[in-house]
Amino acid sequence: MAIQKEQIKGILSDGTKVSDLVDLENGYISARTISDPEIYQLEIERIFSKVWIPVAHESEIPNKGDYVLRYIGDEEVIVSRSERGEIYIVLNACTHRGMPVCRSERGNSSHFRCPYHGFTYRQNGDLIGVPAHREAFGNALDKNQYSLVRARVATYKGLIFGTFNEEAPPLEEQLGSLKWYLDMMLKHTDEGMEVIGTPQRWTVKANWKLGADNFVGDAYHTFMTHHSAVKLKIVPSGDPKFAFYGVHVSCENGNGLGLIGGPPEMDIPPFYGAPPEVVEKIERNLSAEHQKAFRRLAYIHGNIYPNMSFGYFSWATEDRKRPGSYLTLRQWVPRGPQEMEVFSWVLTEKEAPDWWKDLARETYVRTFGTSGMLEQDDAEMWKNITRVTKGYIASRKLKFIYRMGIDRKPEQGDWPGPGIVYQGDYSEANQLNIWRQWEKLMTE
Fold first, then answer.
1. For residue 320, what pLDDT is reported?
2. Buried/exposed 169-202: b ≥16 CB within 10 Å, e otherwise
3. Could you list the mean pLDDT of each consecutive 10-residue stretch along the chain, which spans 444 residues?
4. Which of 23, 175, 362, 436 has a 20 to 30 Å separation from 324 between CA atoms?
5. Where are the beta strands (DSSP E) in 136-241?
6. How far apart are CA 331 and CA 79, in angstroms?
7. Where are the extended beta strands (E) located within 335-383?
């Protein structure tokens, strides 16, 4: 669906203003924002084509020639490390007829060759080979003019970002104060975090924004959606309000997170219960402020706007077994207004002993992997929300309520990190922050 002239002004084809779908001051969001095909197309063109999108982690392509296939919005891209060690992101479409030049999800290669007519490209997208060049084209095809479409590339603490927008501001400006928290999660040891294995992938019949909305700030849903995890003591404290005990932090440009410890009377192992040799590295690498924040945490949830969420979790998956801790990244790849594909990574400290990595991966698989218990809890909610809100009446009459904590004032307290801080993680300030950024990009 092409964007009409009226839509450029933030007006949909039926005359509805996009800005009228969000009431940020009073905390109401129209259900139409979830399943409307016209809104989805606007998001692809006005959000995903404008901002920096996280697509991979450097540990996935450690060697020269390594590559993975990923997505910027609905665009399939190749993320690769060149023979010189540089990282490139190129559109996976031959400039001759648009055939994908790479059809493996990951691998190692010095070049990419189109299987249709044989056009051959370097990792950076340069066209270096055309079969029967002289006989077929004579002087009518200058290889220098037909490189693969390149994205801009930037990295932060091992995360790889790409954008096709030549005018996008620097990545660090988009991340803003979220950088402080990414530093703590991604680079608290000498060598930082590494991806274990390959990302798990699955599709959910749900709109991509529901994943981002849930992870950026919805600690409240754990009381009901994940109540079985409390009953089964996967949550070690056994407290159904376990997700309240922390802070709720809103950052610039739609970014945000919640950081949760435990009930005041509960003794939490420092630094997610990491082995002593890892704790030693954490205490050497992190500042005093970072250590104060990180020492007593058990759960971090958040979102890098627009569509990469993260969770730094500690769960007990078997009776009397040591809890496992891990960092998971998850990209909500849009596949239409009513479907997304989930890419889900599990990471742990690169220098950690093998038993700690094995425990991390096992705990992840049981909780937030493809068939993980908590993952299935969430997916069930998102699928049904998308299903029942796609009708005409629901999309026009129903308004989601975002009023939790709307009258509360930010309170820094003794929290050492930046951002707009709210004491207690039952709040919807981060979700409203996401919708504020959504409205801004959709109406610019």
1. 75
2. eebeebbbbbbbbbbbbbbbbeebbbbbeebbee
3. 56 95 98 97 97 98 98 98 97 98 97 97 97 94 96 98 98 98 98 97 98 97 92 84 94 98 86 97 97 96 98 89 95 98 98 97 96 96 97 96 96 97 97 98 95
4. 175
5. 152-156, 159-163, 193-195, 200-204
6. 15
7. 340-349
> Of all helices (H) and strands (E), which one includes residue 75?
strand 75-81
CB atoms within 10 A of CB 149: 14
Quick check: bond before 306 cis, omega within 30? yes
Strand order in the sheet with 399-401: 22-23, 28-30, 399-401
Reported residue count of the chain is 444
pLDDT for res 262: 81
pLDDT at residue 7, as a whole number? 52
Q: Supply 187's token pair.
A: 């680079």
Distance CA 248, CA 319 (A): 31
The reported pLDDT for the residue numbered 34 is 96
Instruction: Give dist(CA 278, CA 2) in Å, integer.
Output: 52
pTM of the model: 0.95
Q: CB neighbours of 119 closer than 8 A, spacing ≥ 6?
A: 94, 95, 96, 101, 113, 127, 129, 130, 131, 146
Give me the pLDDT at residue 1, please: 45
Report DSSP letters for 101-163, one per residue.
S--SSEEE-SEEE-TTT--EEETT--EEE-TTHHHHHTTS--GGG-PPPBPEEEEETTEEEEE
Q: What does the angle CA 247 – CA 251 – CA 256 come to, to the nearest 5 degrees?
A: 60
- Quickly count: other Cβ atoms within 10 Å of residue 212's Cβ: 27
Q: What is the DSSP string of 4-57?
A: PHHHHTTB-TTS-BGGGGEETTTTEEETHHHH-HHHHHHHIIIIITTS-EEEEE
Q: 358: which 2 tokens?
A: 């094995």
